[in-house]
Amino acid sequence: MLSPEDNEILTRVGPGTIMGHLLRRYWTPALLVSELPLPGGDPVRVRLLGENLVAFRDLNGTVGLIQENCPHRGASLYFGRNEGASAAPTTPGAGICGLRCPYHGWQFDVDGNCIDMPSEPATSSFKDRVKAKAYPVHESGGLIWTYMGAPDTMTPFRDFGTESLPPEYVSAGKTFSPCNWVQAMEGNLDTSHISWLHQFNAIDDIPDDGSDKPGYLSVDMSWKIWRHDRAPRLEVHDTWYGYRYAGIRTTPNGHTHVRITGYCVPYMTTVASIPFRARLSMFVPIDDENCWRINAVAQPPRNPNGYGGGHELFDVTNYPYVKRTFGGIRGRRWTAENEYEMDRAAQRTETFTGIPDFNSQDLMATESMGPIYDRSQEHLGTSDRAVIRMRRILLGAARALAAEGTKPPALAGDGHDFTTFRSAEKILEPGEDWRILGTDDDPTVQEAVFATGQN
């Protein structure tokens, strides 16, 4: 469990908070590129780390992220006009342009500079002394990222592979969740729940396909193993970016199966997949009580020789849940208000929860804790080791930064290669070390990445 003080530090992210100060040292996904598709298009509200902002793509195609309230009298710039300055051309790519406040016509460019103040005398220089708060942005991997820390602390963008991602693989999506970002993220760092929350009875009817042996198994066999061994053992291995942990299970044939998930400070995970992958799952705070669950492809799919049958996690035989797409803003059909469309009859006879959507099972679990769960009430076990480690890393880094100015972990510019952030899954060979799987030393990674020159 955590003390009430630690729980407050861990969960509060607004300006002036200890954790908020830490989070602002990292480039953070603010919105999807698809939300601002065209130059001169409609602005978009963005609430991030407890701050109300507005994003827009100006007539030149450049993205701005500035404070929502106009510095003049506070009207929302979300209702503003995305246009050229009064003395400038209004065609794309031509001259000065920005977001004009609907109240008095003051206009601000993507850097927050007031570029037009038509309600003041033409001879006035007042506009040169007015500036809206603006944050730098970077487009990569279908996401618009921002840096909300002090300008003199800004580090290079952390490239997990999105900078060189071929256009055909660019995919990003997000789901709103009305709960604190940490409790949402803890679900991704909890391997034991897949043996319970996501279970369905028809797994028992999937035939043995012969992949329960050392090596790469099928997706069907992976699900059968989760169901067979429902009390995994956890091992956590610290890394420069955070850690990787293995959920270790015994297969029906008595072999050792591992699912390896990575955690990168402060809110990034990559969930186990056969044979390995680098898809990012991020839990970005909107404020203390709400977050975005954001997924993005970081690297082209790596599945040499069709390991896992060439299937993704949800391609399991007899899958009873609703198939969903993962790009764009994903709407919420299943919510607390309709009890996630839980079917009690199905819960008794077909699925463990009776909730017909896989992701909504996770949402139910984390949202039903309340907006911010009081972790002083917890009773943690051995299966919670990865969650405990994440909390200690975040609390330690936040306190060290606040007390001594200690540089946060996992920042770009220190010579680290973020494209090595990968997950993995396998049935181990005798004596095989799970810590090698999914790393640059893994022969399967070398086959897929280095031999083809894709990295």
UniProtKB/TrEMBL annotation:
Signal sequence residues: none
CDD domains given in the database record: Rieske_RO_Alpha_PhDO_like (cd03479)
Keyword entries, A-Z: 2Fe-2S, Iron, Iron-sulfur, Metal-binding, Oxidoreductase
Alphabetical list of Gene3D superfamilies matching this protein: Naphthalene 1,2-dioxygenase Alpha Subunit, Chain A, domain 1, Rieske [2Fe-2S] iron-sulphur domain
Domain Rieske: 30-146
Official protein name in the record: Rieske 2Fe-2S domain-containing protein
Organism: Pseudonocardia yunnanensis
